[in-house]
Amino acid sequence: MNVAVLLLLGLGLLEAEGRCFFNRTQEHCVCYSLSQESLSSIIQCLPASVVEFRGGELERYVAFPISDLDPSAIEMLGSLVIRKIIFGDLLVPEILLARVLRFFSYTHVQELVFESCIFEGRGNWAEMAGQDLPILSLYFHNVTSAPLTGREENFSSLSSWLETLQELAVTASHVTSLPCGIGRVFRALHSLDMARNSLGDESLMPAFCKGAFPQLQVLSLQRNNLTSYHSVCKSVQLLRELQHLDLSQNKLMADPSSSCQWPVALRIFNLSGTGLDEVLTPLPPSLEVLDMSCNHLHAVDISLSSLKKLFLSQNMLQAAPSIRNCPMLDTLHLDNNSITELPWDEVKLLGRLWDVAAAGNPYNCSCSGAGGVQALAGLVHLGQGWPQDYRCHSPPHYQGRLVKDVLVSALQCNSAAVIVPVCVALTLLGVAGAIYLVRSRPRLVRPCLRV
Ligand SMILES: *[C@@H]1O[C@H](CO)[C@@H](O)[C@H](O)[C@H]1NC(C)=O
Ligand SMILES: *[C@@H]1O[C@H](CO)[C@@H](O)[C@H](O)[C@H]1NC(C)=O
Ligand SMILES: *[C@@H]1O[C@H](CO)[C@@H](O)[C@H](O)[C@H]1NC(C)=O
Ligand SMILES: *[C@@H]1O[C@H](CO)[C@@H](O)[C@H](O)[C@H]1NC(C)=O
Ligand SMILES: *[C@@H]1O[C@H](CO)[C@@H](O)[C@H](O)[C@H]1NC(C)=O
Ligand SMILES: *[C@@H]1O[C@H](CO)[C@@H](O)[C@H](O)[C@H]1NC(C)=O
Ligand SMILES: *[C@@H]1O[C@H](CO)[C@@H](O)[C@H](O)[C@H]1NC(C)=O
């Protein structure tokens, strides 16, 4: 039998019709509101590596006696291949969870997911004291529970497990604060995803207090209630190992000259959709990836010596940014801006750049414009949008035409490059003609003179 069967038997979740569906290619098994009659259906989930339980109500089993397991059951749990268990659309009494969680210590389950669950009441976690669990990743999405503030003491019984946890996500769950003490428990955590909550500027400072999340490398604060760039910088300053910070979809404001220094390890920074109309400063100095797409930027001028990827799609740029001060750049995305020409000669200078996307811009195809984009297409990878999404906007007779289809005749276009040599050639011809005349004239004249 599988750990889930045991859990469900233990919990007495034996009502309503339901059954399990196993997808062999995906090694994924989904069970909908299991009942006692359909429980045999769960046997087919045994070879699955992912088991999902959807629907049901655990509330009425709070008082159900849960005894210890005998050695054969423990051995059987140890032989299961299940790596991930998902609980969805369930009402979970916290007290029940606290009682069954220790059974996971006999399994190899590494990921535990709760989606659209409601945690009810407060559990007594004392039985978990000193207990290790194999679970390394814990995800909560769209869950509600009693507030965490003031319960640090109670959760401290979970600390021998939580201090080994590597990934934690609590998303779309209306979280407004993270008490300082909670972060201090997660000593090995390297990824924390708090996307789509209601964290504000003032709740960040305590969340990342001294000693909290000392190993954290990846932090997502996407779509929260953050407004101050400076205050976010101050709050994460103590996260020495932080490499990847996602602040996308917050409405950030430029603070009058901020003096805060970002963690030096920060390499990936996401400021997409943050309402920016100028580049905020200071930027983390060792950035390799910077996403400032979906903002209102009119101009960008940055110099970051290790920057490799720069995303600026969906802005209001009138011109491609100068990339001379980003010598390591290999990727530059400029789709959906107001750029009329691409500086392909600069690209030639910067040999590393190979991935450029600049579809959806109003190209000026009068002359050098179309030629420049066509030349660029020969030098770099212009993305999936080439050629169908690269269109001329001006001059009027080219409007709507594909840039690729514009015939770029050398004479028409590069007046300086073509007209000058032509003039020089003509001048030389003229000079040659004159010299010929001068040289030949004596011959013509000589006979006359001789005569
Ligand atoms: C199993 O999942 C794969 C990939 O999603 C899908 O193509 C296939 O149809 C599924 N098989 C069954 C029996 O549902
Ligand atoms: C979130 O969870 C609640 C139950 O707690 C559910 O009613 C709702 O449909 C879920 N929302 C989404 C977007 O999944
Ligand atoms: C939580 O901790 C407090 C203080 O340590 C204790 O009095 C209380 O009984 C605990 N509650 C539960 C549900 O464990
Ligand atoms: C977001 O922050 C603003 C001010 O900082 C506050 O007025 C508002 O209530 C907050 N919204 C949420 C959902 O927390
Ligand atoms: C930045 O965040 C947005 C979502 O807000 C996402 O679509 C995008 O892929 C992220 N950029 C990077 C470089 O990860
Ligand atoms: C550019 O805009 C078009 C049309 O609004 C949209 O379909 C496309 O996804 C956008 N591309 C990018 C990279 O933002
Ligand atoms: C397009 O480029 C030509 C030649 O460089 C210039 O004369 C013209 O003003 C430009 N048109 C627009 C709309 O920028």
From TrEMBL:
Its record classes its membrane topology as: Lipid-anchor; GPI-anchor
Thylakoid keyword on record: no
What's a BP term from Gene Ontology annotated to this protein? cellular response to lipopolysaccharide
Please verify whether the record's keywords include Repeat: yes
Q: Which UniProt keywords apply?
A: Cell membrane, Disulfide bond, Glycoprotein, Golgi apparatus, GPI-anchor, Immunity, Inflammatory response, Innate immunity, Leucine-rich repeat, Lipoprotein, Membrane, Repeat, Secreted, Signal, Transmembrane, Transmembrane helix
User: Which GO molecular-function terms appear in the entry?
Assistant: lipopolysaccharide binding
Q: Where are the transmembrane segments?
A: 416-438
Q: What is its main location?
A: membrane
Q: Which segment of the chain is annotated as a signal peptide?
A: 1-18
According to the lineage, what is the superkingdom?
Answer: Eukaryota
Could you name the Gene Ontology cellular component terms for this entry? external side of plasma membrane; extracellular region; Golgi apparatus; lipopolysaccharide receptor complex; membrane raft
The residue ranges of the LRRCT domain are: 361-414
The protein's matches in InterPro entries, at most eight in alphabetical order, are given as: Cys-rich_flank_reg_C (IPR000483), Leu-rich_rpt_typical-subtyp (IPR003591), LRR_dom_sf (IPR032675), Monocyte_diff_Ag_CD14 (IPR016337)
Tell me the compartments it is located in.
Cell membrane; Golgi apparatus; Membrane raft; Secreted
Q: What is this protein called?
A: Monocyte differentiation antigen CD14
